[in-house]
Amino acid sequence: ELVHPRMGLHAAAGAAGGSARAGPTPGGRQSWYGFYPNGREVLLAVEETHGTEVAAVYAIGPGIDENEPAEWSRRNGRLVDDEFIFEEKGKSTLHFRPRGDGGLSATWTSPDGKTSMEAGLRRLDLQHFARRADAR
Fold first, then answer.
1. Domains identified in the chain and CATH numbers
2. Which pLDDT band, with edges at 50, 70 and 90, does 128 fall under?
3. Where are the strands (E) in the chain, listed by range?
4. What are the backbone angles phi and psi of residue 46, rounded to the nearest 5°?
5. What percent of the chain has pLDDT over 90?
């Protein structure tokens, strides 16, 4: 399901829009970052939207155990009532719901449906960082 990040590190570098909603923005690029309760980082970077179809990069940071490397995968999902839902055969189910602060509430469910985790993600404004770098 996931691959090692060194093979495509640049994939999650999409710019974020200014909308607080999970729905599509011009260009379709939005990014959020947070942590699962087990301490692993989580990133969702929406690369494009077409109608209700969503293409995104989903990434997790390394776990505390040696056999839990940082990983990422491209996911195809859909937009349902301003929520991103990624359900693909043989993969974990990802459900991202908008929050009032522009962030997302996330639910990860294992492929067998027996395990799940919740996370809170904050919106990344990558254009803000680019503007600050240009101002220097």
1. 5-135 (2.40.128.120)
2. low
3. 30-35, 41-50, 53-60, 71-80, 83-86, 93-98, 104-109, 116-123
4. -75, 120
5. 68
